[in-house]
Design a protein that fits this description.
Length: about 425
């Protein structure tokens, strides 16, 4: 196994969550060892500066990097979150501490191509693809192998498979505590005999894991969007034939699900990285469906609907709020950096593209020149080449952010690349000076 030497640096960007309801105070304190090659001196300086000026994380306005002919507005919060840093720290330490051992990842560590490619370079092998398709047969594993469980968590079936082989899963489990929080919320809802409605992407690793944990305690159904929530409502109200439910929600309901019985009392949880406004709209909608169906009042609402807060994580909330604040700027375009299969990144793109031309890239190399950019359309799942994306304006105003699994170094390179197109632009050091 090839081990590349690297230096660890301490991350200090985790701060107390802006969601006071989140009981994970440790998120405020914990610092992680993350390989230095994911860090950026520029971004670290900006984050440090913002943190010092805004200790309570109340200010979501973007940071202006004024290069002169191009003005870059950088979102207040972006980049590696608690769960991602935790997973990366465990993964790289596992590689360092276990020379000669076979190390597997259940699937992608996080949804970032560079991080996953780096782990492969260190000799880590992937057991499954992101949709759960087996790449290496589980039968070939032995009890001496190490299997890392990614930040999204995994299903109870897979946990059992690994345990049966004799693999110690606890030690190398990088499941994010904010994902576990969703499982705990599901268990609490199940205990009160509600059916669990999961708002999430049915094929996403996290939703598959949450579904598995939820279904162990109660009937469960996954709805991916408002359209599916509206279809589910027609089964709740009996307007559609129950038999059709099983076809329509194929692979999205738990074993033994009974439409007549299991849609009488419901509660909603979410994949941690959904769009906050969608999640709120779906919970409000289903609540209203239950109120109308059962003639509920405030006093007896809980007879039929578990009225709880959403289970989005702090990073999703902070990053989406930061993008909304950044979108107050009258800008010309936005660049969002992140893995193309990253749920949280795609929602940042969704917010931006409502208001201005938005380019979703997974690497600074996608900025081919001042004229051309190769970017991802997540609606069609295709990469496109666009010409003339940088308008000839002075100053050109550009919004930049990244997803929770994107190393800061990629954002730094994007900023340098764009600024580098303008000969008369200030240097990065001069821009940093302005921020002091
Ligand atoms: S996006 Fe949220 S839930 Fe996912 S790993 Fe990061 S902190 Fe955890």
């Amino acid at each position: 196994m090839k081990i590349r030497k690297y230096t660890y640096v301490l991350s200090t960007h985790l701060q107390k969550s802006s969601q006071s309801a989140i009981p994970f105070i440790f998120a405020a304190m914990k610092q992680f060892d993350v390989p230095v090659f994911y860090r950026s001196a520029l971004i670290s300086a900006i984050k440090k500066n913002r943190k010092e000026k805004d200790k309570l994380k109340k200010d979501f306005t973007p940071t202006l990097l004024d290069f002169g002919p191009v003005q870059i507005y950088l979102a207040r919060h972006f980049g590696f979150c608690y769960g991602v840093e935790n997973a990366i720290e465990i993964a790289f330490k596992t590689v360092q501490e276990n020379p000669g051992k076979r190390i597997f990842l259940l699937s992608e560590m996080i949804h970032n191509p560079q991080v996953n490619a780096d782990l492969v370079e260190y000799g880590v092998q992937f057991l499954q693809d992101t949709r759960g398709k087996e790449l290496i047969p589980f039968e070939s594993l032995t009890k001496d192998d190490i299997v890392l469980i990614p930040a999204f968590g995994t299903t109870l079936d897979i946990e059992e498979k690994l345990t049966t082989i004799g693999i110690a899963i606890e030690k190398y489990n990088t499941t994010c505590p904010f994902v576990e929080k969703v499982w705990n919320r599901s268990a609490a809802i199940a205990k009160k005999n509600y059916t669990i409605i999961i708002h999430g992407k049915p094929s996403h690793e996290e939703t598959r894991a949450t579904f598995s944990h939820a279904a162990a305690n109660a009937p469960a159904v996954v709805v991916k969007d408002m359209k599916e929530a509206q279809r589910l409502a027609l089964y709740i109200t009996g307007q559609l034939n129950a038999d059709d439910f099983y076809k329509e929600f194929h692979n999205q309901y738990s074993r033994g699900f009974d439409v007549a019985r299991d849609l009488e009392r419901i509660g909603v949880v979410n994949q941690t990285t959904m769009l906050a406004s969608d999640t709120q709209a779906i919970a409000d909608y289903l609540k209203q469906v239950m109120i109308d169906r059962h003639q509920l009042s405030k006093e007896n609402l809980s007879d039929r609907f578990a009225d709880t807060r959403d289970t989005l994580c702090y990073a999703t909330n902070d990053n989406q709020t930061s993008v909304s604040a950044m979108l107050q700027t009258d800008a010309d375009l936005a660049i969002v950096v992140g893995g193309y299969n990253s749920s949280n990144t795609s929602h940042l793109v969704e917010l931006c593209e409502e208001l201005l031309p938005t380019y979703y890239i997974n690497s600074p190399d996608k900025i081919i020149s001042q004229k051309e950019i190769l970017h991802f359309n997540f609606h069609t799942q295709q990469e496109l080449l666009t010409s003339g994306y940088l308008l000839s304006k002075n100053p050109l105003k550009l919004l930049v952010t990244s997803g929770a699994s994107c190393p800061d170094i990629l954002v730094e390179k994007v900023i340098e690349r764009i600024a580098g197109f303008y000969g008369e632009a200030l240097s990065v050091d001069e821009v940093i000076q302005q921020l002091q």
